[in-house]
Amino acid sequence: MRIATWNINSVRLRIDNLVRWLKSAEPDLLCLQEIKCQNEQFPRQAIEDAGYNCVVHGQKSWNGVAILSRHPIEDTHTNLPGSSVDEQSRYVEAVISTKDGVLRVASIYLPNGNPVDTAKYPYKLEWMDRLTAHVRERLLLEEPLVLAGDYNVIPAAEDVHNPASWTEDALFRRETRDKFNTLLNLGLTDALRATTDAPGQYSFWDYQAGAWQRNLGLRIDHLLLSSQAADRLTSVHIDKEPRSWDKPSDHTPVVADFAIEAR
DNA sequence: ATGACCTTCTAGGAAGGA
Questions:
Q1: Which nucleotide is closest to the Cα of A41 by its C1'?
Q2: What residues form DSSP beta bridges with A256?
Q3: Where is the Endonuclease/exonuclease/phosphatase domain (predicted)?
Q4: Which strand B nucleotides have any atom less than 7 A from protein CB atoms?
């Protein structure tokens, strides 16, 4: 079972890149973020023609998440529980059947939070609290659970080219990393860090200032695993190739393989 | 180098991103 996450930065603009990558990488499941369209605008036909079912949770103009699956999607769930309904589409969950029971996958687009002196930062922190509360409940199910997405969190200094200049940024602030660690401490495994401690494993490079050419990147796209998923993890890699294509997203896919067979 | 991008919505820039 191959599960990937990719912030596509407009699925309509990049549908050709997306189909090209699906055909070459052959993921069983792909979690997309920043689809930047409403459900009815989603390029469903091109994706179904490539052999994928989809669950889409979009909105006008911004944000939006989706999950593509080669296998039947049994159940879906959108939004996080919380005090108020979230107007921003940032969370969708899907369940598929495997030979050993269900597999649950979420596509997550965690708020950026910048600038930190605006309401955007407390919104990010509150959203992280709601995610943690929801995941705490999901873990009681004792299922293989893969929480894949753009977390907008740089977990550690080795995940950014120049950490000193990021200490006050919403992606790397102490408070942000503390909340990310609280989530991890529920018992989740950061898939990439389960396989390597190498620095510079970036998943995002800004469009500006030749960041890609100079390899000035960030690691902010993560797959966090329940113990039942982590036990079956066989390999993880960041596929940098789509970042080199024409008209790329500023993010590139992170891919994890599991010893789990679809039914 | 006080430089440098990209997308949506909509018709010119504003807003959002990271």
A1: B8
A2: A3, A236
A3: 4-251
A4: 4-9, 16-18
